[in-house]
Specification:
By secondary structure, this protein is an alpha+beta fold. 43% of the residues lie in helices and 13% in strands. It starts with a helix and ends in an 11-residue tail after the last helix.
């Protein structure tokens, strides 16, 4: 009878654990991903060197094809250079009032572009985990950026990242309807098939 009671107790524990796993609360990672949004205007407040390095470390730890890590990160804290880059970028005026910027430099090729996207996403999520907002941009005139930053001819600025503390109006929850519903973009096992 004792053995039967113990076995029954074990089954109850297993069922309880399974139930807890099924209804687990969202993790910190879930919250960071869901609440992240692009912010183009920043509060005039410096970002500590510790947080700057944490952002760059996140990019360094991003995965890449065959672990080639094709990127170089050009970190920017000089306000004058950030303003100059905003002028020549064509699409990245938000660099002008960023407290910190990162230019992602890569060689030519398909995989470096793919890899740099992962590194950029890692850096932005790491920043948001520290309360730092960000926005990604690009350069219409890479030669103009090269003239300012003096990076080698065999590298190109695939994107730039602006970082800074967000204004109060950007700190609330994301607006509803900002993302398409999952059932509109996901197809199961073949095109057009919904989850059974």
């Amino acid at each position: 009878q004792l053995a039967i009671a113990n076995d029954h107790c074990c089954h109850q524990v297993v069922n309880l654990v399974a139930a807890l796993v099924a209804v687990r609360q969202p993790s910190r990672t879930d919250e960071v991903i869901r609440s992240k949004r692009a912010v183009r205007d920043f509060v005039k407040q410096p970002i500590s060197s510790e947080i700057q390095l944490a952002i760059l470390e996140a990019g360094r730890h991003a995965p890449s094809a065959m672990n080639r890590q094709p990127w170089n990160f050009l970190a920017l804290t000089d306000p004058e250079k950030l303003e100059q880059l905003a002028e020549v970028s064509g699409h990245s005026g938000h660099l002008a009032n960023a407290a910190f910027g990162v230019i992602v430099l890569i060689p030519e090729g398909h995989w470096p572009v793919f890899d740099s996207g992962q590194a950029s996403a890692y850096m932005q999520l790491a920043a948001w985990d520290h309360g730092i907002a960000s926005c990604v941009g690009s350069f219409v005139d890479p030669a103009g950026a090269r003239a300012i930053l003096e990076f080698p001819e065999d590298l190109r600025p695939v994107c730039c990242l602006s970082f800074g503390y967000p204004p109060k109006e950007a700190e609330g929850p994301p607006r509803k309807g900002g993302r398409k519903p999952l059932n509109e973009i996901v197809h199961w096992n073949k095109w057009g098939a919904t989850l059974p």
